[in-house]
Amino acid sequence: MMTLVIISILIIASYTGAVCIKTKGIPYSISATYYALDHKLIFGACMTLTALFLFPVAWELSTTFTMRLLAIAACTGLIGVGLAPDFKDKWTNKIHCGSAALTLISSQLWVACTLWILLVPIWGLFIIYTLIYMYKHPAPNLYKCFVSSRPMFWCEIASLITFFATIMIRL
Asked: Which residues, 6 or more positions from 83, have their beta carbon under 8 angstroms from its beta carbon?
């Protein structure tokens, strides 16, 4: 089982790292990296493979029916993000954003059911980082200042870290 988790981490971390290097910076979201790619199928493959390798482990660690439903929802949502990557398209946007929300919410609820205490430091760091960034990089208005901190990217990273860390601790 640990092998599946490591493969899943390597896929998402390698993809995210490579795209950050290619674009020479932090994107607004992991999904926004789709538009920076020459080979668009890479995004979908990485999201789908990450979910497929992670699902059996999350399923096995789920101790209740509710947790199993949350594991299914989290991984299915990530597959949906990968299958509908073009969020700038009006129709695909609904699938992509719905899948992303499903992944974020269900994965964090799964973590809350498994090892809730892990949510506090990781999401706390996200909030602290955002506030420090906004303080050090003032903008004409609060919204622009907030968006310039790349909150969606760091929210996705926090979500991935809590999910993977919970799984690795429980294995």
From this structure: 44, 48, 95
The C-alpha angle with vertex 148 and arms to 154 and 165, in degrees rounded to 5, equals: 5
Mean pLDDT of the chain: 96
Q: What is the DSSP letter of 139?
A: -
With tokens 């920076």, the residue in question is 36
Query: DSSP string spanning 44-61?
Result: HHHHHHHHHHHHHHHHHH
Based on the number of CB atoms within 10 Å of its own CB, is 169 exposed (0-12), middle (13-18) or buried (19 or more)? exposed
Summarize pLDDT for 65-99 with one digit per residue, the tens: 999 999 999 999 999 999 999 999 999 999 999 99
CA torsion angle 47 50 55 57 (round to 10): -160
All residues at 6 or more sequence positions from 113 whose CB lies less than 8 Å from its CB, including other chains: 64, 66, 67, 70
* Element holding 120 (H helix, E strand): helix 119-136
Predicted confidence (pLDDT) per residue in 130-159, tens digit:
999 999 998 888 999 999 999 999 999 999
Question: What is the model's pTM?
Answer: 0.93
By the 10 Å C-beta count (0-12 exposed, 13-18 middle, 19+ buried), 159 is classed as buried
